[in-house]
Amino acid sequence: MGISSPALWTEFFERYYREEINRLAYKLKSGGDGRSLYINFVKDLAIFQEGKLGEELIERPDEVLLHAEKGLVNVTNIYGVSLEGCKPRFYALPTARKILIRDLRAEHIGKFLAIEGIVRKVTEVRPRIVQAAFACLNCGSINIVPQEDSQLRQPFECSKCSTKKLIFLPDQSVSVDSQRLKVQEYPENLRGGEQPQTIDVILEGDLAGTVNPGDRVVINGIVRAKPRGVGQRKMTHMDLYIEGNSVEILHQEYEEFEITDKDREMIMQLAMSEDIYERIIRSIAPSIYGHEDVKLAIALQLFGGVPKKLPDGTEIRGDIHILLVGDPGVAKSQLLRYVHRIAPRSVYTTGKGTTTAGLTATAVRDEVDGRWTLEAGALVLADKGVALVDEIDKMRKEDTSALHEALEQQTISIAKAGINAILKARCALLGAANPKYGRFEKYTPVAEQIDMSPTLLSRFDLIFVLTDEPDEERDRRLVDHILHSHQLGEMLERVKNVSAEYDEDYIKARAVRIVPEIDPELLRKYIAYARKTVYPVLTDEAKKKIEEFYLSLRASAKDNSPVPITARQLESIVRLAEASARIRLSDRVEEEDVERVLEVMKRSLMQIAVDPETGKIDIDFAISGTSKTQRDRIMVIKKIIENLEESHENGVPEEEILREAEMEGIERSKAKEILSKLKQHGEVYTPRYGHYKLVSRV
Questions:
Q1: Do 569 and 609 form a contact (C-beta atoms < 8 A)?
Q2: Phi and psi of 220, rounded to 5°?
Q3: pTM for this structure?
Q4: Number of H-type helices and E-type strands within the chain
Q5: What end-to-end distance do the CA atoms of the chain give, in Å?
Q6: How far apart are CA 553 and CA 23, in angstroms?
Q7: What is the average pLDDT score of the chain?
Q8: Cβ contacts of residue 486 below 8 Å, gap of 6+?
Q9: Rounded to an integer, what distance in angstroms lies between the CA atom of residue 426 and that of residue 419?
Q10: Half-sphere exposure of 396 (CA within 13 A, CB side)
Q11: Which end of the chain is more exposed for a tag (fewer CB within 10 A), N or C?
Q12: What is the pLDDT of residues 381-419, one digit of tens each?
């Protein structure tokens, strides 16, 4: 027999929780709806009675929680309010009682423990009947039946007159608010290829409705088991679920990273080194040759800019979005996979196998009881981390629309089946896309080569084109690098599986080229530490430098020339410069940071935004695929058709349009190209072959 009893619990509450009980009583007296008393397990219960009462709670929770509830009712309070129906809720369990979802076993059934994870989906809050009232149609007496299961239990017959005619009375039954969650393991704690495991959690009373999908939580409660199967067809295999006693919502970022004093020392040492940027670049996917500018951009993305909330409530994102476009075989996916390994928090998905629901969030009907549930997708699960989307161009059109809000506002709104919710998706996006026709065409705009809308493209801070162009010297180094990597891999496999014919030192010496400069585990901690503790501020010199760059580029856009850069790119520069300062763990964004990111920005713009005809940077050319010169020509040709239409009833002959265009200085081939584009976009039509008419807008 244990020591637990209502009297002992009353003593515990009076000794440690008198103030809280008075506060709870005041809340009840003034009509408040909270009926919970929160008890810190480690701080108070583990000390009381040498921790024996706490041990009993863990081993025999059903019995002990009943004692605790009765004990709470017996505690007096200054307001003289009855605490009947109030629940003692326990949090901060000892570390030994925190069990991983994948480690839950039969021995845990009926025990009190804590699990930690990310909320994958939540059902709507609905009442659950605890005691059902049934009226007898014969004698009118009320029969009360306690309810345990999800199926409503009816009385076999009336307890007074034994008639079987009974009717259910919902308004006289006792019910509690109930909600079911699905909690999933943290994606960052999984080793490559592991399937994240989930568990259902039932929350009742004032716990229901407190969490949203994407929240990171610790659930304290009792492990229960129920047989699988429906109705009479029950199976011997059982499903585990947790009956929640309390929920702790974790708001801290990267809380799961244990940064020791030794780690901190190593991080500080790294930050002080002269070549810290080069070292980080060499630590990102060292088995992939070259692409230093892309690796620097990815490093900046991992450290991130500073998210800001202005006094008027405006929020400015600090996350940096990057898009990699390129030829097949330039290791885009490999880069994404590597980032997935070193980012402190990340979720990897591909555009092809992803629906809107999988990528963002959705409302779906629950398979168990038909309730509508909110389910979090990859971007919500990557909150405060990095979302990696491969083949982003292969997504269905309706799915990309969900990305717009996620990239700029960093939220995902849902209005479906009566559920209106806004979920947080504060993540950086690293996307990879392949050109439509297999290889990247140098003189065709990016927008035409990827299946993505201009509005979506404009939300990326940096777009890089990874091409595979023959270059003798570079190819020689690349082939050497790839063959060296394969040879090393072969040696390692041979040593592991057949015989140890290569000694450790020999392999170590050969691995130097492929081993990351900074150990991936330390780099993850470095990133987490920088994002958590470093919030740099722009210096006046840095501001001046950004201003000069922006204004000088804008100044070149006088007199009807292309717009080289917009305010969106200006914000990108600030974000990137903040990230550059974070890499050095600096509290100030210096001139050197701005110079570094301007180089990256220029390289990105030179790859995607140079109008091949004029050689000038034209941001519209990158985003919409139509350069300023092209837009001007389109206007001229439309004007020509408009002017000639009156004299040609069946449409203007192509030859006449081309002749007029030549007089305006537009080459025949260019004019022909524009005509076919206009037809494609539905701006002109051909009433008969070779004749064009404008589509009139009513």
A1: no
A2: -105, 130
A3: 0.69
A4: 23, 25
A5: 87
A6: 63
A7: 80
A8: none
A9: 21
A10: 9
A11: C
A12: 788 888 888 888 777 776 677 787 788 788 888 777 777
